[in-house]
Structure formats: structure tokens, C-alpha cells
Design a protein that fits this description.
alpha/beta
């Protein structure tokens, strides 16, 4: 059996000392003895992840012992206060274990213990570090059983980290969660009527982030790297938002009227486009009657939309002013407002797209069904397959008429469907870009980069081990020095931790293309 004994640098090993810590089984043949500074950390029940699974740290894992210098004697078994005990002896500046008890059983150091490794760690570095990543032990002989995994150092990090009183934490958690949940209930009621509003969705996400920050600071009694990244990114977000709003006030003082001018220009362009489609676009010979009917129907929808804007102009101006000054909360709020304005200004395009897509879907489905009629088959919805079916001459005659009409009307429908589906896809892409801008701005690892420049131990993630006292033929003890090194900048940029907003749905082109072929509706991200 092997033992890795972790000793903090705050412990004076050259004078008699009592020590406290934990004994945790890491693998089937390896135990970790973690000596901690009891002045900085006190026992509380917690869980650690070892190679044999999750281990609940309880009183049976508590270890006590002593450091004996100048040839003093070890304690007897009757003096041991816990199930686990270790006695470390110093002679001629050499360190070794003189007595070891695990689970109330005294081990024979010559026959039952194959190897002891003393690992001296910097207590403050491990306490501050939040990103233990790799283990560098290139200079260590292969016969030394260090078990090159990071788990034992993660256990050490867990054991020395303060774990504040559960009663105080739960009391504060209940208070802040009650306040946050009250706000979320109000916003969810509003979201019931504005289910696709990016602005209200962003407000809910930011409320959840503020809740997570408050809980993180209270539980850890410090600003973590994750919290610091979000706070600095949000400050940068605010600065950009104020600068952009100032530029808008300077160069676009009459933003509300400009918005209506843009909407009017879009409507004029659509009317021109529909007039062109109602003729012979690009020389295509379309069904004139069906084409005129569709064109007039779509033009009437655009006229109704414009009349609605005219009637509600004053209300919309007030809403636009309110939204504009909500942009002072940051550029991410402005991106959400812009996404909502884009959806609102293109609502009539979306309506025409729905009509065209539904008509196209009905015609494609009808043509496919009637084509099966010619083949003597039909679709069976009960088993989701195609069955053989015999049709009489009346059914074949009606089917032939329906197939012919749908087939010859299909080019006219495809023309409108392709045009307005293109508009729909462009709007979805623009909305996706705005939503990605939100997430990317609030995910900037500014705090991590500052810590990397200052070489802070908070982002020291690479565990580096060097040999201090090597193993000899007469001794099975090895002394190692454990140090933390700062991770690379590329790693910080790739995998920096930050409080995440609610994940946005990405555009999945593999799913969109079949939907476009079938005429299924494309919803916003």
C-alpha cells in the first residue's frame, strides 16, 4: 500500500507539533493523508471525488498526529484521538513516518507500506487557485508512485477550502432566492404575452446572473474568477452602451421618426417587389389569375400593417423612447432591443412568409399524395408506411385533375415562397448575430487576462512537482515539492470560466434545409 502525505508550507516541521487532517482512499492501493492548517480551515462535512468514486468526508476520515523532532517518542495507540493517526519524525533534516494508523489499524511500515511520498504544498497558492488542470512530474523517477492524475490535488483543494456554516448560507440563499423568484414571476407573466421578446428574455437572464453572483460571493466570501469575469464584462458592456447611446443622441436625435421612415421605406420596397412579381418576373410564365390573386392578397396585408402603424404611431414613439433609454444598461440590452425592433418591423414579412410556406406545404404534400395514387399506393398513418391500394377510374380521374392543377400552380407558389423565405432566413441570421453578440460580450475573460498579466495564483492551474529528497535503498520515503504554475493565455481565452446566460439556440442548417424543402415554418432562434 502506498501513501501520499501532503504537508502545508505553513507547518514548521523542525519542532514538535501536533497536526490535523484527513485520510482519504484515492485508489485501491493508494491513500492520501492531507495535513491542513487548522488555523485557516476547520472540519465540515463535504464530498470529494476520488478514483473509487465520490467519497463523503465524515468524522471517520479525520486524522490527527504529531511531528517529532530531536528523537522524541511517538504517541501510544491509547493516546490516539481518531481512527487515523500519523507520526512524522525528523532526524538529521531527513523526514520519515515512524507510526501510521489507518481505520484504527496500526500498519507495519516495513511489510504493509510499500512507499511513502511527502508532498510539500503552498497553502495560500492552493487556496487561491480555481483552475487545477494538469500534473507535471517529468523529473520524477517512474518507480515513484505519484499516480499522475489531478484528482488527489483536487481533493486537497476541496479539503483546505473554507466551508461556511450551512445555516447562515441557507438563510441567505432563501432571502436572495425569494427576491429573485418574485422578480422572475413578474417577468414570466409579462413573457406570457411577449413570448418571443429578446429584451424580456435578456432581463430574465441578467436577473438570474445577478442572483448567481450574490450567492457566489456569499458562499465563497470572495470574488471568484467566474464572478470577476462577468462583473468586468458587464462594466465594459455598460461603457459601450453609454457611448453608443451618446452617439445616437448626437447623430440621430429624432430616432423615433427615423424608425418610421425606415419602416415606410421597407413597405414601399415590398409593394414594388410584389408589383414586379405579379407581372412576369425574370421572364417566367406564371399563372396570371393565381399570381394576381396572391399578389393582391399580400398587398392588402401590407396595407393593413401600415394602417396599424399609423393608428398606433404615438404609442410606438413612446415605447421606442423607453426602449432607447433602456440601452443605458449596456450594449447587450441594445442588441436585444434591436432584435425586437427587427422582428417588429418585419412582422408583415413574416405573415406573408407564413401564408406562402403553408400554401407551398399543402401543394407539395398534395402532389406527393396524388403521385402515390398513380402508383397504386397510399400513405398509412397508423404504421407510418406506404401500403398498396386499388383505385377505381373515378378516383383516378379526380386525382389526375387535382395533380395537374397543383403541378401547374406550383411555380407561382414557389416564386413567392422562395422570395419571402429568403427574407425570413436573413432576419433569422441577423437575430442570431445579435444574440451571439450578447453572449460573447458577457463572456469576455477580462478578469482572467488581468490575473494572467499579474501572474496571480488564482489562475495557477498546472501542478509542478520537483524532487527534494530522493528514495534510497534503505528508505522508502520520498520528499517532493508541489508548486502551481500559471496557465497559458491561450487556455484562458479558450476555457475561461464565466457566469453563463441562458444558452441560445444555434442555427442548425442540417435541420433547416429539409424544412425549406417541405415548407415547414422557420421560427426565430
Amino acid at each position: 500500500m502506498d501513501f501520499n502525505i501532503f504537508l502545508p508550507d505553513t507547518l514548521n516541521i523542525y519542532k514538535n507539533n501536533r497536526i490535523n487532517g484527513f485520510a482519504v482512499q484515492i485508489t485501491d492501493s493508494l491513500w492520501g493523508i492531507f495535513i491542513i492548517d487548522d488555523k485557516l480551515c476547520r472540519f465540515q462535512q463535504r464530498y470529494v471525488n476520488s478514483d473509487i468514486g465520490y467519497v463523503e468526508i465524515t468524522e471517520k476520515h479525520v486524522l490527527n498526529g504529531n511531528i517529532i523532532a530531536d528523537g522524541a517518542k511517538s504517541l501510544s495507540i491509547s493516546d490516539v484521538r481518531n481512527n487515523n493517526y500519523v507520526s512524522i519524525q525528523i532526524e538529521n533534516r531527513k523526514i520519515f513516518v515512524s507510526q501510521l494508523i489507518i481505520n484504527s489499524k496500526q500498519l507495519n511500515l516495513e511489510t504493509e507500506v510499500r512507499q511513502n511520498i511527502f508532498l510539500f504544498y503552498n497553502h495560500k497558492e492552493f487556496l487561491k487557485s480555481e483552475d487545477l488542470l494538469t500534473l507535471e512530474a517529468k523529473e520524477i523517477d517512474r518507480s515513484i508512485n505519484v499516480k499522475s492524475n489531478i484528482n488527489q490535488f483536487l481533493i486537497l483543494k476541496n479539503l483546505i477550502s473554507p466551508n461556511f456554516a450551512d445555516s447562515d448560507k441557507d438563510k441567505f440563499d432563501r432571502k436572495i432566492n425569494t427576491t429573485t423568484n418574485s422578480c422572475l414571476i413578474i417577468f414570466n407573466m409579462v413573457m406570457y404575452f411577449t413570448n418571443h421578446s429578446k429584451l424580456f428574455l435578456h432581463i430574465i437572464n441578467m436577473t438570474k446572473c445577478v442572483n448567481a453572483i450574490g450567492l457566489s460571493i456569499w458562499r465563497k466570501r470572495k470574488i471568484s474568477v467566474e464572478t470577476g469575469n462577468f462583473l468586468l464584462a458587464f462594466m465594459l458592456d455598460l461603457i459601450f452602451g453609454i457611448v453608443i447611446l451618446h452617439w445616437i443622441n448626437q447623430h440621430l436625435p429624432d430616432l423615433e421618426n427615423n424608425f418610421f421612415i425606415i419602416v415606410e421605406d421597407i413597405i414601399s420596397y415590398l409593394k414594388t417587389l410584389l408589383s414586379w412579381l405579379m407581372g412576369s418576373p425574370a421572364g417566367f410564365k406564371l399563372n396570371r389569375t393565381f399570381n394576381n390573386m396572391l399578389g393582391k392578397f399580400f398587398l392588402s396585408n401590407i396595407d393593413l400593417w401600415w394602417k396599424f402603424l399609423e393608428i398606433s404611431r404615438d404609442v410606438l414613439k413612446f415605447s421606442l423612447q423607453t426602449f432607447k433609454y433602456m440601452g443605458t444598461f449596456g450594449i447587450t440590452f441594445q442588441a436585444a432591443i434591436l432584435a425586437d425592433l427587427l422582428s417588429f418591423a418585419s412582422l408583415h414579412i413574416y405573415c406573408i412568409y407564413i401564408y406562402a410556406a403553408r400554401l407551398y406545404n399543402v401543394q407539395i404534400s398534395g402532389i406527393i399524395a396524388l403521385w402515390r395514387l398513380f402508383l397504386g399506393k397510399k400513405y398509412n398513418p397508423l404504421r407510418g408506411g406506404v401500403d398498396t391500394c386499388h383505385y377505381n377510374h373515378h378516383q383516378l380521374f379526380i386525382g389526375t385533375l387535382g395533380f395537374t392543377m397543383m403541378l401547374f400552380l406550383l411555380p407561382t407558389t414557389i416564386m413567392y415562397y422562395v422570395v419571402f423565405t429568403t427574407f425570413r432566413v436573413i432576419i433569422i441570421i441577423l437575430t442570431e448575430i445579435l444574440m451571439k453578440t450578447q453572449v460573447n460580450i458577457l463572456s469576455l475573460p477580462i478578469y482572467s487576462m488581468i490575473l494572467w498579466i499579474l501572474r496571480s495564483t488564482k489562475i495557477s492551474g498546472n501542478v509542478h512537482i520537483t524532487v527534494i529528497q530522493d528514495m534510497t535503498v534503505k528508505s522508502n520515503f520520498v520528499v517532493l515539492l508541489v508548486q502551481l504554475k500559471t496557465v497559458s493565455l491561450s487556455h484562458i481565452l479558450k476555457s475561461s470560466k464565466t457566469i453563463q446566460l441562458q444558452p441560445q439556440k444555434n442555427i442548425k442548417w442540417g435541420e433547416i434545409v429539409p424544412k425549406l424543402w417541405r415548407g415547414s415554418l422557420l421560427y426565430s432562434v
